[in-house]
């Protein structure tokens, strides 16, 4: 009899730049498959809508005249699916609509902020893993030259890559291995944007100079947001002590959450002002 998977088997350490372990939970294979299928449905729906518009708009063209447009359509579909995955995963939520629906996101295994290079690498690899073999099968079938051997080869190719995440403990795709990423569950906590309003009276005691806010950048802001989302006392205490030492501020343990809430709100506002002025700091190491 098969035994149920222990949820603790999918818990992994995620060390922030401040040395705090956030303890993330990896998304299982079923959840990842569900997210991918939802995204495919969205992409296919968008492709069908655009295709219908083009067909009705260029309905008077003959087969010969339409051939170049068919090539353009193939390129468009390639760009659509890649821009879709890359644009959403490179965003602040690091998740496509499908991932957001099932409650997962992409994270860097190093604990640092997710970079655009990582996002591009993991998504372009999906072309080789899944879309390339399926595109070859579709192209040969459309040309009327599909054969059993090529069809079986393409399906086995796609299947092997798709099932790869079942055979490693971190549930990684080949793309995740190359990009240094994994897919983790998103904690269901109150949005930290509300915290930046600083409604808690105690955090109004904290004020920070521009020099103190310059100590950290966008990557650290995102990690601080994760710490606040989790609302874990030990993690907040450790991060507050680290930030306090960095900026020269004394923080009492019982003030950790208030201090971090205040610093998060001021740091975000500070970075937004600098962004408007064209001076965006990627992380604490940037100049």
Description:
The chain has 287 residues and is mainly alpha-helical. Helix content is 57%, strand content 5%. The chain contains 10 helices and 4 strands. It has helices spanning 29-57, 63-89, 97-102, 116-142, 148-163, 174-179, 210-213, 218-230, 233-247, 256-276, and strands at residues 11-12, 24-25, 104-108, 181-185. The strands form 2 sheets. A two-stranded antiparallel sheet has the order 1-2. Strands 3-4 form a two-stranded antiparallel sheet. The longest helix is centred in the N-terminal third of the chain and has 29 residues, at 29-57. It is elongated and about 75 Å long. Residues 189-196 and 276-283 have low confidence and may be disordered.
Structural class: mainly alpha
Distance between the termini: 58 Å
- Strand proportion, as a percent range, falls in under 5%
User: What's the arrangement of strands in the largest beta sheet?
Assistant: 1-2
Number of helices: 10
Low-confidence runs = 189-196, 276-283
Quaternary form: single chain
Percentage of helical residues? 55-70%
Radius of gyration: 24 Å
User: Strand tally, please?
Assistant: 4
| Shape estimate | elongated
Mean pLDDT, to the nearest integer, reads 78
Question: How would you characterize the largest beta sheet?
Answer: 2 strands, antiparallel
Order of helices and strands: EEHHHEHHHEHHHH
